[in-house]
Amino acid sequence: xxxxxxxxxxxxxxxxxxxxxxxxxxxxxxxxxxxxxxxxxxxxxxxxxxxxxxxxxxxxxxxxxxxxxxxxxxxxxxxxxxxxxxxxxxxxxxxxxxxxxxxxxxxxxxxxxxxxxxxxxxxxxxxxxxxxxxxxxxxxxxxxxxxxxxxxxxxxxxxxxxx
Length: 163
Fold this sequence. Notes:
With 163 residues, this protein is α/β, with parallel strands linked by helices. It is built from 6 helices and 7 strands, in the order βαβαβααβαβαββ.
């Protein structure tokens, strides 16, 4: 049986200098890299979403990307390297789903998070405890749906249950 893990987390600027290598090491410490029964669901944003896609690629874990709107809208104000990274994540994914195919709508982020949680048996968060924003909203929704949430923060290789 496959276990699907949805990832949610803050953007790099909110993670006190955390890096992909720390994220990778934290997942490795949990034994994630040797599991053959995993599938990831990621949201395509900068930071944790991209890190989860990279980790999946590096460890041959299948993953789905769910975007709140098309890639050209998602990355409109990003730098060129970040836009290329998103397109590469999409190219390597098994599946791409887009919530709103037409235009930018901030509500698309919450809808994307709901889709991700609805696909998962568990949510891994990189959450500093901030009670507002998309990560907090995703965690609240998961808890409302009865999906367990485990916080990886502070990327120390331990899971912390979010109650």
